[in-house]
Amino acid sequence: MAEIDTVIALGSNLGDRIANLRGGLAEMVQASFAVTAVSSVWETAPVPADQPPFLNAAVRGTTVLGPLDLLATLKAIEQRLGRTPSRRWGPRLIDLDILFYGPNSFETEDLQIPHIRIPERAFVLAPLSEVFEGPLPVLGRTAQELMDALDASGVERTGLALVPPAAHSTT
Fold first, then answer.
1. Which domains are present in the chain?
2. What is the pTM of this model?
3. Does residue 23 sit in helix, strand or coil?
4. Under the phi-then-psi rule, with left for phi > 0, alpha for psi from -120 to 50, and beta for the rest, what region is 58?
5. What are phi and psi of 58, to 5 degrees?
6. Average pLDDT by consecutive 10-residue portion of the chain (171 residues)?
7. Which of 33, 96, 130, 147 gives 28 a disulfide partner, CB atoms 3.0 to 4.6 angstroms apart?
8. What does residue 145 show for φ and ψ, rounded to 5 degrees?
């Protein structure tokens, strides 16, 4: 199978949030995800508000996995990193969501690409705008254009870095 341009959103609001994001990225790289761009790490107000704030990031890369295999791989990574089932949109150690998979849409009962809530989530659009310039697949507008239409209060860039594991220096 050909390599497909893919964007994954990462989020965490429990435990060592930056370590959770870095662990998720490291596991993605081990599972056939070749990183081409990494956003800044953003701290964002939780939705719903009755939980700790999130750290969010976006990673763009390529994979040879099909969309359903990629989804299964991401769910397995979440479980290995300690995510347990909880209420919808509740607190979590790690959340890995497929935002885009190639230039087209894809829909099954378990997966919708592009992610259905991208246009209404500043916490997704802020990091996405750093890894994807130009019009977004299917949506036809840039992440910045979509974010400009939202209230982005509570979405702040941090000084933390989510660096691909291969980029770490040992010196």
1. 4-160 (3.30.70.560)
2. 0.90
3. helix
4. beta
5. -135, 145
6. 92 95 94 93 85 95 95 94 70 92 93 92 95 94 95 91 58 44
7. 33
8. -60, -45
